[in-house]
Amino acid sequence: MKRIAVLVSGGGTNLQALLDAEQSGVIKSGKIVAVVASKPGVYALERAKNAGVASTVISRKEFDSAEAFNHALCAYMQSMQIDLIVLAGYLSIVGGELLSAYQNRIINIHPSLIPSFCGDGFYGLRVHQAALDYGVKVTGATVHFVNEITDGGKIILQKAVEVQDGDTAETLQKRVMEEAEWKILPQAVELFCSGKLN
Ligand code: GRF
């Protein structure tokens, strides 16, 4: 049974999808044993508490350098004997020691079809506003491995979602979350935990 840590920064709807997938048996080869928030007070921490999952806050601004921040994250993951790190609506940049210690064991969900609308500065509603501004008819979500390039790691799963007339960034974000993110992230986690992603 693989031990999973989920890193969060906000509402935690992707975390909730993972917790629900564990309950329903969609995720059966792994167990979420830790939630790490990038700042205190985010609702994702409430979700962890309600699910009885250990949680902690490791905030970049508590540290003098990116190196110290990544070292703290890495030390926590090792103390919890984590096998897979899932970035779920996580807004801090991970790098350095954590990336090398957990190479090909960190995955991220991005709310577009990479390589469109991704990279530095593309997060949250901005991603969907960029898709609307461009006028794409189809967007979606991508689960990918995390490497030193923002949203640059090997793609694991993608799911397309139609853009509808009259969509706003908010309505599009909601559809992409419901129809894509909350489906492919649990699927990707189970693929990893059951050894199907080499
Ligand atoms: C959303 O913008 C979602 O598309 C992206 O992260 C943000 C918040 O996700 N993956 P969550 O509700 O905190 O999981």
From TrEMBL:
<feature type="domain" description="Formyl transferase N-terminal">
    <location>
        <begin position="2"/>
        <end position="189"/>
    </location>
</feature>
<protein>
    <recommendedName>
        <fullName>Phosphoribosylglycinamide formyltransferase</fullName>
        <ecNumber>2.1.2.2</ecNumber>
    </recommendedName>
</protein>
<comment type="pathway">
    <text>Purine metabolism; IMP biosynthesis via de novo pathway; N(2)-formyl-N(1)-(5-phospho-D-ribosyl)glycinamide from N(1)-(5-phospho-D-ribosyl)glycinamide (10-formyl THF route): step 1/1.</text>
</comment>
<dbReference type="GO" id="GO:0006189">
    <property type="term" value="P:'de novo' IMP biosynthetic process"/>
</dbReference>
<comment type="function">
    <text>Catalyzes the transfer of a formyl group from 10-formyltetrahydrofolate to 5-phospho-ribosyl-glycinamide (GAR), producing 5-phospho-ribosyl-N-formylglycinamide (FGAR) and tetrahydrofolate.</text>
</comment>
<feature type="site" description="Raises pKa of active site His">
    <location>
        <position position="151"/>
    </location>
</feature>
<keyword id="KW-0808">Transferase</keyword>
<comment type="similarity">
    <text>Belongs to the GART family.</text>
</comment>
<feature type="binding site">
    <location>
        <begin position="12"/>
        <end position="14"/>
    </location>
    <ligand>
        <name>N(1)-(5-phospho-beta-D-ribosyl)glycinamide</name>
    </ligand>
</feature>
<dbReference type="GO" id="GO:0004644">
    <property type="term" value="F:phosphoribosylglycinamide formyltransferase activity"/>
</dbReference>
<dbReference type="Pfam" id="PF00551">
    <property type="entry name" value="Formyl_trans_N"/>
</dbReference>
<keyword id="KW-0658">Purine biosynthesis</keyword>
<feature type="active site" description="Proton donor">
    <location>
        <position position="110"/>
    </location>
</feature>
<dbReference type="InterPro" id="IPR036477">
    <property type="entry name" value="Formyl_transf_N_sf"/>
</dbReference>
<dbReference type="GO" id="GO:0005829">
    <property type="term" value="C:cytosol"/>
</dbReference>
<dbReference type="InterPro" id="IPR004607">
    <property type="entry name" value="GART"/>
</dbReference>
<dbReference type="InterPro" id="IPR002376">
    <property type="entry name" value="Formyl_transf_N"/>
</dbReference>
<feature type="binding site">
    <location>
        <position position="108"/>
    </location>
    <ligand>
        <name>(6R)-10-formyltetrahydrofolate</name>
    </ligand>
</feature>
